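Practice set, problem 2.
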Amino acid sequence: GKKPLRQRVVDELKHYYNGFHLLWIDTKVAARMVWRLLHGQVLTRRERRRLLRTCADLFRLVPFLVFVIVPFMEFLLPVFLKLFPEMLPSTFETESKKEEKQRKKLNAKLELAKFLRETIAEMAKRNKADTG
C-alpha cells in the first residue's frame, strides 16, 4: 500500500542524508588520491575512474543543491530529472535507477553490435560480389 506522508518525508530525508554522507566519503577519498597524484604516485585505473566520478558528482551537486535549499523546489526535481537525467550526483541514485541505467546501456550496446554485424555482413557480400 501507500505509505503515510510522514513516512515518505522521513524516507526522503534519510535518502538525502545517506547521499550527502556517501558524497562526503567519496570526497575525502578523492582528496587523498589528489594528494597522492601531487606527490608523484600513479593511480590505478579504478582509482582514476573513482576520482573522475567524484569530481563530476561535485560539479553536479551545485544545481542539485538549489532544489534542496529553495523551499518547495524539490517538487520540481522529478521534472528536471526527466529533462536532465544525469543531473543527480551518483551517490543520490536509487538501486532501481542504477539498474534501469545499466539496462539502457546494455540495450544500446546490443543495438550497436547488431548494427556492426549487419554492416560487416553487407561489406562481405559486396566484396564477394566484386571479386566474383
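Problem 2, part (b): a different protein.
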Amino acid sequence: MAGSPALLLLLALGLCCPGIHGQRNEVIARFRHSSTKPPQLGQRLELECDTFVENIGVYWVRQEDKAGIQHFIVYIPAYIRTTYEGKKQTSTRFEAWKNGRIYWLVVKSFSSQDEGNYFCLLNSYRMLYFSPGQPAFFP
C-alpha cells in the first residue's frame, strides 16, 4: 500500500493530460507541397497549418529575420469571415482559408517584403499554441 499514492497520481495524469498516450497538442506550419523549395521572386507561396483541433480560429504571423519584428497577416476563424491586417475582409497580397483542422495561407506573389519565418498560432482552452516557424527566404 506504500506505493498507492504514486500509482494514483500516475493514473490521474494518464486520464487528464494530453501527451501521456501519444496525443500531443501540436500546431505545425509547413509548405503546402512537400516539393516546395525556397521561393522565387513573384512566385505563389502556399503554406498550411495543421492543428490538433477543428472549429477553432488560427492566426498567421510573419517574423522578420533580422529585426525579429512580428507582422500579423490574417485571422481565420472557425465560422465567420477571415480578417486580414487592418480589419479588412480581403487582401491584395494574401489568400487564406480552412478545411477541417487545416488552415492555408497563400502569398500571391512572393517578394522581399514577404521574407521571414511564418508561424500559425491558436488559442485553445486559454492555452496559446505556436507552430515552429516555417522559413521562407530567397536563396
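Answer key, part (b): The radius of gyration is 19 Å. The longest helix spans residues 4-16.
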